[in-house]
Specification:
Elements lengths: L1 E8 L4 E8 L3 E5 L6 H9 L6 E6 L2 E5 L3 E2 L7 E4 L11 H6 L7 H15 L14 H13 L5 E5 L7 H18 L3 E4 L3 H7 L2 E6 L2 E5 L1
Parallel strand pairs: 3-9, 3-10, 7-8, 8-9
Antiparallel strand pairs: 1-2, 1-4, 4-5, 5-6, 10-11
Length: about 210
Amino acid sequence: MLKVNLEKNLEHYKLDVSFTVEEELVILFGRSGSGKTTLLNMLAGLLKPEQGEIGLGGRMLYQAGKVDLPPQQRNVGYVFQDYALFPHVTVEKNIYYGIKSKQLPNSGDHLKRLIDIVGINHLLSKYPGEISGGEKQRVALVRALAYRPDLLLMDEPFSALDEKNRLQCHEEILRLKQEWQIPILLVTHDHDEASKLGDSILYMHDGKITQQA
């Protein structure tokens, strides 16, 4: 379970949100600039709130003035909108980045299945600068799922994919959600995608959750 109660003053408004996510997929929906990515960055530990707390599976990830775990200790998978791949290493090394050697025996079959489903076998020896935007997005998705996170954050992860690959990724996300039973937060601007994937939808406007459906 993910428990969130956060405040942060931004340039044009104050972000102030409070919600709970069970082992389900929750959509963050709202116009650009409404605070969706800022919220994901705070959950991942990339941006510090000013007040509040973040609890995940009985662990406190952040509590104002007391606890602020760094990203590498949160076990949070994050698919960034701009991919955030390391340009100086191959796709394969990007995927395996962050997986400890003791985890590899248990990760092998899982990673092979992900790589097959997302269709990036032919990209493993290439560098990020040698592949397209859609291919980078698929690599980023596999990397975020590689080490079995306790929480998965996705910022418009399928926007650059063609219809076939997008539908395949939809099915894999739904299957993984059922198998892993972890909270998933996904940002999308696609109503059909939100309706298909989301157990619930949080509508955001100027840093506030205005509606839950």
